Amino acid sequence: MKSNFMFILLTEKFTKMWSNQDLRKALIHFKPMLLDLYHSATGKIAKKILFNASDKLLKCVIYVLYNIAVGNISLDKTLYPKLYKSKRASYLSKKLGSKSKLKKILKYPRKKQVDCLGHFSSQFPILLKKLLDHSFSQKSNELEKK
Question: SS3 for 72?
Fold first, then answer.
């Protein structure tokens, strides 16, 4: 099953829209890299991770940000003030607020995609918290039991 997904993931065109299932599979596949983005302490570390990322990981991060902008992935309400104070919430909705804007970003060259995602480099811990925090609590509970 996983090898079939990887074949589809590696052979599809970048402009093809992912379904929610495709996004879920990509999140599972790229979880270690997304965790690195989540744990990035500074914007420079996040930019370095994005610069070294594969094209598919960039696409996955773009889709995650799109789903956050549209409201399919909710944010932790306690972190709203930090996001609005940094003025990234308006930038997120401006850049990724609709499918046409998403398709436009997916057609960008790699350097421009990395630059676009670089605007959120210091905000990845806030943006990915709700998505990835549950897995951290499970890991920490397992470590505490040992």
Answer: coil
Contacts (Cβ under 8 Å, ≥6 apart) of 68 = 75, 92, 127
* Distance, C-alpha 15 to centroid of its chain: 17
| Residues 49, 70, 82: CA angle, nearest 5 degrees | 60
Model confidence pLDDT, tens digit, residues 12-31: 444 467 777 888 888 888 88
- Domain assignment of residue 79, given as a range: 2-9+19-145
* DSSP-based three-state secondary structure for 87: coil
Question: Long-range contacts made by residues 97-100, C-beta under 8 angstroms, separation at least 24?
Answer: 97/69, 97/70, 98/70, 99/17
| Structural domain contains residue 14 | no
